[in-house]
Write a structure and sequence with these properties.
- The chain has about 120 residues and is mostly helical.
- It has one domain.
- Helix content is about 90%, strand content about 0%.
- The protein contains five helices and no strands.
- It is flat.
Length: about 120
């Protein structure tokens, strides 16, 4: 891994972590407890967190040229889209079905183009 890749990874992971810590320190005690309460909900743990972690892992795989990391990132992104479709199903059946179908088709396309071939 060359120096540019190391710099890319430091920027890629450092900026979001720095911004998260900076915003967390601005919160008062009541807002911090509310943050942790919302962080532990299934919506966050299965929908939001895997999406952003998957994007970070996907772009990390570009910097370090590792296929396995890219597969994990794409799996997390597609899983969070699928869960988002299930969550959206309660408010709008058409949008929920569309998101579930989109996630399933993307998973199949990714499998056939990048893993199977």
């Amino acid at each position: 891994m060359d120096l540019i890749s190391v710099f890319f990874l430091c920027i890629l992971w450092g900026i979001p972590c720095f911004l998260l810590i900076k915003e967390y320190k601005k919160l008062n005690q009541k807002e911090r407890s509310q943050f942790w309460k919302e962080f532990k909900t299934p919506s966050c743990l299965l929908g939001i967190l895997p999406r952003y972690l998957g994007l970070l892992l996907f772009f990390t795989s570009i910097g370090v040229s590792k296929e396995f990391i890219r597969h994990i990132g794409v799996f997390l992104i597609i899983t969070s889209w699928f869960y988002g479709g299930l969550e959206m199903w309660g408010t709008s059946v058409k949008r929920g079905a569309f998101l579930i179908t989109l996630a399933s088709l993307l998973a199949l396309m990714y499998y056939f183009f990048f893993i199977y071939s």
